[in-house]
Design goal:
Dihydrodipicolinate Reductase, domain 2; six-stranded parallel sheet; single chain; 32% helix; globular; alpha/beta
Length: 351
């Protein structure tokens, strides 16, 4: 005789752009239920009430944390509110799934991590792309070693809007790419050099270029912008033996693996350091387009959160992982303020 798993009862804070998607996924999952929803926008709340009549709605976050029928809180509110709301939720003994970034300061991340540990609670960050089937397939290929040494990674995440005022384009978009890099590679970048520009308003950068440098010589460049005519979600990985492109906009073949590489062969000891002394051997083989069974990453993320809380599974997007992304974002901001100076990234240890 099997014991039926008790559903995790959830409260959701924030029903703007992303909140309704989280509600839908947890509402339809047989491991969870949505008990209550909070937002300051009463029109948004009325839409949720119409779609889910049995879910309680409120404009007060305190109603969620004081609700004994809520086991965990999902926070999908503006970035500047994340720290305070997560702290209140953890203090009220609620598990937390919080959208990226987990906070705006490293010390805030550290406090939330310590609080979750002291309360024996789970702090889970919504780094959705590490639950993307294509990103997972790339990790498996990288782990196989078939690409040889990785030389560099180029990442582009651009579109014409949506334009935000609370954070710059790098804080808005780059957490996705930084979390992907930290998921793919066992080591984290040690420095960052970033430049940004303000074209749309006088408060935040809408276009940013940042280059992360690794101890093994690998570099990763991230370009983020709200001011671009084309929506781009593309990553290029150049390796010693092969090259790979992940394109999230290509639903048929999101991954292409190119059997291409370049080697230099020294031809004559007497001609060293001359043009004739080296021969570039360019190898161009086949292009492989593996079949990827696409998934709904948010559904996979919500399932992962439930498995972490209910089954004790290892979290791929813990509070510590979220803090490491914030550490990199803060260092990039420091570099922009210093006109692109290379800045060392100080990582939260979680101790």
């Amino acid at each position: 005789m099997t014991t039926e798993l008790k559903k995790l009862r959830l409260g959701v804070a924030g029903v703007g752009h992303w909140g309704p998607n989280l509600i839908r996924n947890f509402y339809t999952n047989n491991k969870s239920s949505v008990t209550a929803v909070c937002d300051t926008d009463t029109k948004r709340l009325s839409l949720i009430q119409s779609a889910y009549p049995e879910v309680k709605v409120t404009t007060s976050f305190n109603d969620l944390i004081n609700n004994n029928e809520v086991d965990a809180l999902v926070i999908a509110t503006p970035t500047e509110t994340h720290y305070e709301l997560a702290k209140k939720a953890l203090s009220a003994n609620k598990h937390v799934l919080i959208e990226k970034p987990v906070a705006t300061k490293p010390e805030e991340c550290e406090e939330l991590i310590r609080l979750a540990q002291a309360k024996n609670l789970h702090l889970f960050v919504g780094h959705i792309f590490i639950y993307n089937a294509g990103i997972n397939a790339v990790k498996e290929y990288l782990d196989s070693g078939d690409m040889g040494r990785i030389y560099y990674v180029n990442m582009a995440r651009t579109n014409l809007g949506p334009i935000r005022r609370d954070v710059n384009a790098f804080w808005d978009l780059a957490p996705h790419d930084i979390s992907i890099l930290n998921y793919w590679f066992p080591e984290k970048p040690v420095t960052v050099s970033a430049v940004g520009a303000v074209y749309l308003n006088n408060e935040v950068e809408d276009t940013v270029y940042a280059t992360f440098r690794y101890a093994d010589g690998k570099i990763a460049n991230i370009h983020t912008s709200w001011l671009n005519p084309k929506k781009v979600r593309e990553i290029v990985i150049v390796g010693e033996k092969k090259m790979l492109v992940w394109d999230d906009m290509d639903l048929n073949h999101p991954i292409k693996i190119y059997d291409k590489n370049v080697t230099f062969i020294k031809t004559d000891e007497q001609l060293i350091d001359t043009y004739s002394g080296f021969h570039a051997n360019i190898h161009e083989g086949d292009t492989l387009m593996p079949k990827i069974l696409l998934n709904e990453p948010l559904k996979a993320e919500c399932e992962a959160f439930l498995n972490v809380v209910q089954n004790g599974e290892k979290s791929l997007s813990s509070g510590l992982e979220g803090a490491h992304v914030v550490n990199a974002l803060v260092a990039a901001d420091q570099s922009m303020l210093a006109d692109g100076k290379e800045i060392e990234i100080n990582y939260t240890t979680g101790e």
